[in-house]
Structures are given as C-alpha cells and as structure tokens.
Amino acid sequence: MDLKLLIEKTAEGLGFEVIDIESSPRGRLLRVFIDKPEGITVEDCATVSNQLTRLFEVENIDYDRLEVSSPGLDRPLTKLAHFERFAGEEVQLRVRIPVANQRNFSGTLRGVDGETVILETATGEQRFAFDDVERARIVPKF
C-alpha cells in the first residue's frame, strides 16, 4: 500500500486530518502534520505517533525518525478544501509555471471557484488552477 495513503487512513481513523507529509531522501525521516477542528495538543501528536510506529512495524516500513506535529501558524494549504476554509487569510503562493514571469504571489485568499484558487494581490485579482499551485502557506499574523 502507498505510504501516504496508509498514513492518511490511520490518522483519519483516529479522528485527525493529515495536512502534509514530508520525507527526507530515502525516507529516513518522516514528518506528518495533522489537524482537527478544535486544534492539536501534544497528546494528539503522541497518539498518532504511537499508532504510526506500531503500523510501520507491522507493515515493515523502514525509517529512522518519525515526527508528528500540528501544521503551525504558517500552515500549508494542500487541498482545495483548505483554500475554501481559509478564505480571507493572507497567503504566500507559488505556482509551477510562471504567470507573467512570476511564480511567487502574496495576497488575501478569496476562496475557490470550482478548481480555481482566487487570490487578491496588490495588482488585482489573480486566478490559478489548483493543479498549478506548487505550494501555498498562510502568513501568520502577530
């Protein structure tokens, strides 16, 4: 089974959403970012970590270190639903293919229209196909 799918099914079974999964070259370090509507506690991270550790042992998945954490204040937006949920937030967005010689954009997320992400920038409204978004993160407010 695909490692990402395995991790997602396990975390979702415990009541958590997997926001992102990062791995180092050769998969020696696995980072799993989880969330739930009321937020993440240290105990939540420990619960998911313990369950994944047991699962990896049973599935014979080779890794050196597993880190489970919340997505943080600068949380990544990895699913179309995230772009809808965080409409109104300031975000930094990077596209795969340059638009007018530019790949990085900052502005206020306006939401989605079908499969299109809408971003209000200093130069006006920009629209990006969700599949063209390489990465996006919320800009934390302090």
UniProtKB/TrEMBL annotation:
Domain Ribosome maturation factor RimP N-terminal: 6-74
Ribosome maturation factor RimP C-terminal domain boundaries: 77-142
Keyword RNA-binding set for record: no
Keywords associated with the record: Cytoplasm, Plasmid, Ribosome biogenesis
Gene3D superfamilies with a match to the protein in the record: Ribosome maturation factor RimP, C-terminal domain (2.30.30.180), RimP-like superfamily, N-terminal (3.30.300.70)
Domain of life where this protein originates: Bacteria
Cytoplasm recorded as keyword: yes
Main localization category: cytoplasm
Pfam families according to UniProt: DUF150_C (PF17384), RimP_N (PF02576)
Localization annotation: Cytoplasm
HAMAP family assigned to the protein according to its UniProt record, in alphabetical order: RimP
Function according to Swiss-Prot or TrEMBL: Required for maturation of 30S ribosomal subunits.
Annotated family: Belongs to the RimP family.
Protein name: Ribosome maturation factor RimP
Protein species of origin: Niveibacterium microcysteis
